[in-house]
Structure prediction request, 446 residues.
Amino acid sequence: MSLRAIPQVEKVLQQLGDTGLPRPVVVAVVRRELAELRKRAAKTIIAPDAVIASIRSTLAMLRAQRIQPVINGTGILVHTNFGRAPLGPRVLETLREIGGSYNNLEYDLTGGARGGRAAYLELALAVLCGTEAATVVNNCAAALVLALRHFATGREVVISRGELVQIGGGFRIPEILEASGAKLREVGTTNKTTVGDYARAIGKETALILKVHRSNFFMGGFVESPSTEEIAALARKKRVPFIEDLGSGAVIETQRFGVEHEPTPAETLKRGVDLVTFSGDKLLGGPQAGIIAGRAKLVAALKRDPFFRALRCDKLILSALQTTADLYLNGDESQVRLVTLLAEAREKLRARADGVVAALVGTPVKASVGIGRGQVGGGTLPRSQFESVTVDIVPRMPLEEFARRLRSHTPPVIGYVERGVFKLDLRTIFPAQDDVVAKAIELAAT
Ligand SMILES: *Cc1c(COP(=O)(O)O)cnc(C)c1O
Prediction:
């Protein structure tokens, strides 16, 4: 294609028609692609149709990259790719109310003057964790970095080699320690660490003892680590703080739902840990946040750290977390969306699957009710799978093509392939979405 044959921006825009994206974004994309073409024009020949097709595909990709609701048929409840815990109606109502009006975020309504930020929430979280004090930052990683920076910059953090893990993408405990300016003091071996190992490592340079929940990693066989109580006793004797990064921090009894027990912040603190850190949007089922709970003196010290200001949450997060905490404290945890999903009885899932399968009679797919293996996800309870109910689809096209079509549906529907069958797990699909799912399957199949 000669330079002159490269279409004008305006012409291309006309040809594209309505793209569903703001015009300045489309103009920018067109300009970039045309500029790229001009660079290559001397070397290659490109048909004008191909130019339009290439721009259309870039725009389609951008549309798909806009944050939007998706229907999660993977059976993974706390899916980091899908924004972790979805929020329930009570929390959504809070977001609407607080986000849409002025509020007393930092105003003392009793005294009529500037007040503390989220003082009620901090107390509510402390009560929920059965401890003296609590506070909130942006996420659990931030909570840990804040604690390490504050208590351990330039000094040693004693941690078992078995806990130097990577959690999810880009969260590696040794790197977090280094980034916080703390020195790593590894003790024990990958599979065995004793309380004596900890004791021998503690000295003048020790800032704190850190224990980390292994999250999405587990060990079996010839393994040993001291109990939390033993480490806590040592920490008290040596007068160093003992911090545990719990990650998930379920406040409910997870065994109720037929999965393993996940240590709660309350029981961990009761065992003698001074501070725990955990996420707001994993098993707690709230918004993204990092909760720090434990001894009042330590929490207060962290809140005074200038770095705390850089990690603080906004009114939406704080109020959403406040409603979530209240739901638990009032015994209304069944209204926390994540708990609702976990608690959904298998018979109900089965009845819903029957409904979806019935709706697909006469469509080009073979649909049946299947068995799924749901997971909590988000690095929580990696050993626990719970039996779930799926809608199993055999379409008349390659499974990848069928999955791709469902992903490009509005809203996108995401499932998984197992043994030549496309599966949608109803545990993570909300009951109100069943009809949409059936329609999406029908559309994708034809
Ligand atoms: C998930 C997890 C984190 C990171 O939590 P974010 O809220 O995503 O920052 C940290 N530590 C542990 C043990 C975790 O499981």
User: Anything to note?
Assistant: The first strand starts at residue 71 and ends at 72. The CA atoms of residues 375 and 385 lie 5 Å apart.
